[in-house]
Amino acid sequence: MAAYEPKNPGYRAAAIAMFDGQPAMHTLGIVIVRLAPGEAELAMLHSPALTQQNGFVHAGIITAGLDNACGVAAFTLMPREADILTVEFKTTLLAPARGERFVFKAEVVKPGRTLTFCEARAFAEHEGKVTLIAAMTGTLMAMLPRVAASQAPAPIPA
Amino acid sequence: MAAYEPKNPGYRAAAIAMFDGQPAMHTLGIVIVRLAPGEAELAMLHSPALTQQNGFVHAGIITAGLDNACGVAAFTLMPREADILTVEFKTTLLAPARGERFVFKAEVVKPGRTLTFCEARAFAEHEGKVTLIAAMTGTLMAMLPRVAASQAPAPIPA
Amino acid sequence: MAAYEPKNPGYRAAAIAMFDGQPAMHTLGIVIVRLAPGEAELAMLHSPALTQQNGFVHAGIITAGLDNACGVAAFTLMPREADILTVEFKTTLLAPARGERFVFKAEVVKPGRTLTFCEARAFAEHEGKVTLIAAMTGTLMAMLPRVAASQAPAPIPA
Amino acid sequence: MAAYEPKNPGYRAAAIAMFDGQPAMHTLGIVIVRLAPGEAELAMLHSPALTQQNGFVHAGIITAGLDNACGVAAFTLMPREADILTVEFKTTLLAPARGERFVFKAEVVKPGRTLTFCEARAFAEHEGKVTLIAAMTGTLMAMLPRVAASQAPAPIPA
Q1: What is the DSSP code (8-state) at residue D49?
Q2: Which of A109, B118, C98, D124 has the smallest C-beta neighbourhood within 10 Å, fewest atoms?
Q3: H or E segment at C18?
Q4: Confidence band (pLDDT; 50, 70, 90) for B3?
Q5: Looking at residue C92, which CATH number applies to its domain?
């Protein structure tokens, strides 16, 4: 993969602060385990509170981890003053989310001034084995202060 | 939309049981508010524990609601003995998830013996106004007992 | 659906000119059959030259029609000076593309200054019956002249 | 990537025959340039007949190449008697399709008895430079003769 040059020399602190500002990540028990320009790795321990009817972690929770991994990876390449939002993502579920621990790895495939394209994969660690359980591709958008108002999604006409 | 004929006369009880068997839904505070053959509507009250850095509900949580709405809608049309799993979904985020209450409406667009295609929309209720905040399309798969083992995703070759 | 107010009073002529400027549409035999603010309908006659191994029209060709329907629908709501590009789309194939004629209907679900979200459906007309054969959701981007250079996708770092 | 073991020893001839049976590929000038178990690479020369309003190759044509690369890659791992169909794909357009030649590389990420998940990338070769222009993820389905009828998408209820 390309080695990216971050525009914000304080990208690590900025990405960690953005992540730590998300109560949902605390609630789900998701933490950052690795950061590099254009890359992020998050992890989460299994919790029975987050499972679906077969005892596997719910696809929406796995998606929350993948989406945030993409967001953090994209954010590391954005200018200091940017805020970030997710435009869209697609998640494909490849195997049941069965395991003691889950890892979400994202990397930026194509950074851009406005839009950034990321790919991410989720892995389950179960009894010493690592299994690919889901894949995401997503588009993230940088919101810059001076254009933030005008770039914001327009209200839907009544 | 088409009026679908459920294969399982007990589809309501079956869908509710499947939904209630998901601890993640209890944790997120998501409940069923309407059910019909090929249709489902879920709702969730705002919780600060589920927000991201700007105070809006996290995209992954919104996705969990949309995915489950699709799953319940698809499940209403499956035979009694089927289990269900999500193959993939795409979520597009259209506006910030700001509100006191969120509603997830899904409908089956194309049912199939193996695969079912669903569409879902998420709405935020904020100070008396309803706003479309996200849209999903997804593919769900029926797992039938006699073929469950062979249909299960194959392990990835080492 | 919402009734949209076009920003460009000459939106019809502009959309037709943009469409007619695409040699690929001539090659595939796709034409505009209806236009309204935020809506577009295209049509294509069956051609054996565009089929796959079972005699059905190729999914990529169906996608070209859907993508262009989305592009034209989104373009009708953009300002006069804007150019348009597709950010991403997802196509779900719901039934074989078997028929004498194919119709692609798109509508804008959420217009925005920078990004517009569209949905589209493809139908096959076969022996007097109309069948839904594919569904698309897509994100389109307005490129405005003054920011065109800076908004352009950045080159991938070597 | 994993080294996959094809179930069909004649996978090369089968994949080439499936590809050659598609008139759309001849029309678009797309050819196979490399085949391996779970992998495929296709190529296409630029043609003015396939461009959009800015002279770049149309996103639908690029998608046709990517979709077929996924189809061929997935088909190499299917049993001899299987037919294949595309369930869904998402294409993200990353840079204008400007070049003399285009290459579509796909690989199977997760094979399965019924569903196979693939990733593909499109590259433009322009004045000696290679640029990533698009990325696809897609789900392909194996249709086995004995279940072909019952697995076929059900007609949409009237």
Answers
A1: G
A2: C98
A3: helix C11-20
A4: confident
A5: 3.10.129.10
Q: Tell me the H-state helices in D76-115.
A: none
Chain centroid offset of residue B12 CA? 15
Q: Residue D81: is its pLDDT beyond 90?
A: yes
Encode C48-94 in three state secondary structure: HHHECCCCCECHHHHHHHHHHHHHHHHHCCCCCCCEEEEEEEEEEEC
| D87–chain C nearest CA distance, Å | 5
Q: Which helix (H) or strand (E) holds A19?
A: helix A11-20
Q: Which residue of D has its CA nearest to A94?
A: D110
Arithmetic mean of pLDDT, B81-104: 97
What is the number of H-type helices and E-type strands within chain B? 4, 6
List the 16-55 stretch of B: residues with Cβ below 8 A of A.
18, 21-28, 48-54
Which ipTM did the prediction report? 0.90
- Asked if residue B100 is part of any domain, the answer here is yes
Asked if C28 and C64 count as a contact pair (C-beta separation under 8 A), the reply is yes
In a domain, B147, yes or no: no
Specify if C3 maps to a domain.
Answer: no
Q: What is the DSSP letter of A81?
A: T
Q: What is the pLDDT of residue D146?
A: 61
Of B7, A136, C93, the closest CA to residue D143 belongs to C93
Any C CB within 8 A of B109 CB: yes
Q: Which tokens belong to C77?
A: 């709501």
Give the closest-approach CA distance of B6 to chain A in angstroms. 21
Q: What is the pLDDT of residue B50?
A: 97
pLDDT at position D155 over 50? no
Domain carrying residue C62 = 11-142
Distance from the Cα of A91 to chain B's closest Cα (Å) equals 5
Distance CA A67, CA A64 (A): 5
Report the domain count for chain D.
Answer: 1
Q: What is the mean pLDDT of residues D101-130?
A: 98
D contacts of C69 (beta carbons < 8 Å): none
Whether residues B137 and C132 touch (CB distance < 8 A) is answered with no
Asked if the model's pLDDT at residue A98 lies above 60, the reply is yes
Residues of A in contact with D132 (CB under 8 A): 109-110
Q: Which residue of A lies nearest to D115 if distances are taken between CA atoms?
A: A94
Residue C147 lies in a domain: no
Mean pLDDT of D73-102: 97
Task: Tell me what the pLDDT averaged over chain C comes to.
Answer: 92
pTM score of the predicted model: 0.92
Residue B152 in this model has a pLDDT that exceeds 90: no
Do C31 and C19 form a contact (C-beta atoms < 8 A)? Answer: no
